[in-house]
Amino acid sequence: MILVTGGAGYIGSHTNKALHSAGYDTLVLDNLSKGYENFVKWGEFVNCDFGSYDDLKNLFNSYDIEGVIHFAAFSSVGESVKQPAKYLKNNFKNTLNLLKVMKKFEVNKFIFSSTAAVYGNPEFTPIPENHPLKPINPYGQSKLNVERALEKSDLNYVSLRYFNAAGCDFDLEIGEAHVPETHLIPLILDAAIGKRDSISIFGDDYNTQDGTCIRDYVHVNDLADAHIKAYEYLQDDNSSNIFNLGNGNGFSVKEVINTCKKITGIDFNVEISPRRDGDPDILIADFNKIKSSLNWNPKYDLDTIVESAWNWHKKINNDVCI
Ligand SMILES: NC(=O)c1ccc[n+]([C@@H]2O[C@H](COP(=O)([O-])OP(=O)(O)OC[C@H]3O[C@@H](n4cnc5c(N)ncnc54)[C@H](O)[C@@H]3O)[C@@H](O)[C@H]2O)c1
Fold it and tell me: Which end of the chain, N or C, is less surrounded by CB atoms within 10 Å?
């Protein structure tokens, strides 16, 4: 079976569902610090912290684990700036702990959730994997530290550097529910549904066509599909690799807001606020490497991303709890 750490969270739960549809057995490990037990609707669930060597050892003793897909981490850039030690511990040191247990049990297939934040402020865009790696916040640094540790290990691994994950399960069984929410599309949809008075655009004087930052949004089901392809790539004895995961298309904040207005049919207030530190003008993935190596192609466009997110948003705002 495959161990899915962080499988009660957003991307992990969608990947867990996709793994089951593809016929894999999974064991989902999550300490529910950010995730939801009722997002684990497939496979077995264990409430466990991957920073505990003894708990992991017991787990690897009790289950026949053949590979690990590692989503568990903290992922708020702003929080990482305020509490760098928390990110170094959970994202980097705890991952070293997981790698140590994997080595002890001779489990050597590992898929790692990395991030475009390892590139920092890009020197050019679209960004290929061999772009210089200069993270500008502790979150990006913690992920780069793991990538460096993987390079030195004898594991067979694939690091997937996601750009902006977005959208939700089309069956609405699971979705996106970060607390606090920091991602653009759910924040905009909060304004559409009336949970916030307006949506703030942080800066409209960037070097882009409409002055707002441009990002690359990739549907979470496309991400899930890439994890399965990456796992199968390792099963076929291919060597370790690193791939970008993005759509290859950039959309400005204003374009995303307009798409949300179009899909929801709701006109809501938009405010311009001052720039935030460390937001690059444009982040777009060059995903040619994963396209040619794993035959992965993103299927879903921005309209579909927003529509799926909106359907989920309406559902969770009608339910008392998720
Ligand atoms: N969401 C994005 O756009 C994005 C972009 C780039 C990279 N990533 C990476 O993808 C991964 C998943 O992101 P997400 O958006 O699904 O986040 P998420 O917070 O929804 O999921 C992470 C899960 O890990 C669990 N977790 C955290 N620390 C743990 C620990 N010590 N032990 C056990 N469980 C623990 C949390 O409870 C949560 O369920 C993360 O590694 C993140 O850094 C996300």
Answer: C
Which atom of ligand 1 is found nearest the CA of 162? Answer: 6
Residue 75, ligand 1, Cβ within 6 A: yes
Whether 186 maps to a domain, the answer reads no
Does residue 182 lie in a domain region? no
Question: How many domains does the chain contain in total?
Answer: 1
Probe ligand 1: pick from 17, 30, 37, 174, max atoms within 8 Å of CB?
30
Per the CB < 8 A criterion, the answer to whether 211 and 205 are in contact is: yes
Q: Atom 3 (ligand 1): residue with closest C-alpha? A: 165
Look at residue 113 and tell me if it is in a domain: yes
- Assign 278 a pLDDT band (cuts: 50, 70, 90): confident
What is the extent of the structural domain holding 121? 2-166+218-246
Q: Is 194 left (phi over 0), alpha (psi -120 to 50) or beta?
A: left
What's this model's pTM, rounded to 2 decimal places? 0.96
Task: State yes or no: is 157 an active-site residue.
Answer: no
Question: Does 180 map to a domain?
Answer: no
Name 146's Cβ contacts closer than 8 Å, sequence gap at least 6.
91, 92, 95, 112, 114, 159
Among residues 301, 200, 189, which one has the least CA distance to residue 251? 301
Q: Which amino acid is at 6?
A: G
